[in-house]
Amino acid sequence: MPAKTASPTIEKTFHSAAHVRRLPERDVLEEGWLHQLFLITHVLAAWPAWKLALMVLGATALVWYVWLPLGPFSLTAAAIFLGFVLLDWALLLNLPQAGLSYGPVGPQLLVMTTPRLVSAVLLGLVARLAGWHGAAVVPISGLSLIQMLGAAVYVWGALVEPFRLTLTRRKLHSAYLKGASPPIRLLHISDLHIERLTRREAFLLELVAEAKPDLIVITGDYLNLSYVDDPLARSEVRKLLARLHAPLGVYATLGSPPVDPRTTTPSLFEGLEHIRLLRDEVAVLNLPDGRRLSLLGLDCDHALDIDAEVFRALVDLAPADSARILLYHSPELMPLVQQYPVDLYLCGHTHGGQVRLPVFGALLTSSALGKRYEMGLYQEQGTTLYISRGVGLEGLSAPRLRLLCPPEIILWELS
Fold first, then answer.
1. Is residue 28 part of a domain?
2. What distance lies between CA 301 and its chain's CA centroid?
3. What is the pLDDT along the chain (415 residues), one digit of tens a residue?
């Protein structure tokens, strides 16, 4: 029998398909090349400052060596490179001091230094091949310009764009939400990735208050990867969740297993009676005006065969006369979901790439489907998919910045 709760304005029933889920044979994300790269480079988190300084000096020596055939300009090139790397280092040290973002310096310094080193080496090789030995002022000017551009990108990406949280507004019409009643205002939040509460999270709460949602849904990834087991970060998550309220309720699902460990993340919701953590469960909301809304909350193991099996069971549990909204952390189920009567599929996971290039878009999405579904709105066979750019930053060695991909929460008007 489904569990029931009631209030003066709404009746809710919950239908579980948790018995359908099988344990995956392997953790798809943790064994993937990208996560392994994050773990390998995260070794630098334990490096003291002197060891990081040796790494920087070694990179500087490489630049000097590549530019050596250009004569005394080799020292100039090395000095330019070193100066900008030291500025990056100072920026990283300032981020936690300013209460903007947190985490070890070493992995991020490596991430920021690598493009600088590659561009400096390539430009030096081009200058040598072009025979600019007597006119090295040209490549030196080019090197200065590239390194300055890199500094501008890093400052914008670390200090500005991660805090330009936007409230995106969308509308969805469903044949199952008939009548003259006002639209249901549903607010979607994803990928909080909290390290510590910052001005971004404070602004998030302001936007939530401004949106006045009837219903809030959260699609996983509550902690930053560098802070999954950090007691203070976990406490900060609970503080934020405790302040999210909506008349029709707040509903949440779990994200990727490395970020939302199944053994610890559910405890974040203990005592938060106003939030229902949907773990392979359908919440059916029966509104007083006769409208009915089904929220299909699905754990995201990224084991697509298992997740697909549970999804099919949830569809069977959802009343046929209700509007259906799937809450699943990743867009990877879209090829399957669009074959079923699902009105709206809300997810995150990709962060929109977090770092995007003009025209090309996301460099990486961490999705098995690559760039097929990377950000925003997709409509296929009657199903509307929306991939949130998320709120926070991934953690570990993922870039601690955003570029052409500001964070967002999305307010849907369902009518």
1. no
2. 16
3. 455 544 446 899 999 999 999 988 777 777 788 878 888 989 999 999 999 999 999 999 999 999 998 888 899 999 999 999 999 999 999 999 999 999 899 999 999 999 999 999 999 999 888 877 666 788 899 999 999 999 999 999 999 999 999 999 999 998 888 776 889 999 999 999 999 999 999 999 999 999 999 999 999 999 999 999 999 999 999 999 999 999 999 999 999 999 999 999 999 999 999 999 999 999 999 998 888 999 999 999 999 999 999 999 999 999 999 999 999 999 999 999 999 999 999 999 999 999 999 999 999 888 989 999 999 999 999 999 999 999 999 988 889 999 999 999 999 999 8
| CA-CA-CA-CA torsion sign (363, 365, 370, 376) | negative
Does 24 map to a domain? no
If asked whether residues 323 and 408 sit together in one domain, one would say yes
Q: Which domain covers residue 171, as residue numbers?
A: 3-19+167-414
Which pTM does this prediction carry? 0.94
Total domains in the chain come to: 2
- Among candidate residues 161, 183, 212, the one where a domain is terminated: 161
Asked if 127 and 237 sit in the same domain, the reply is: no
Compute the CA torsion angle 315, 30, 270, 268 (nearest 10 deg). -120
Token couple for 121 = 């080496």
Residue 27 counted as domain residue: no
Tell me: do 181 and 155 sit in the same domain.
Answer: no
Distance between CA atoms of 353 and 399, rounded to whole angstroms? 11
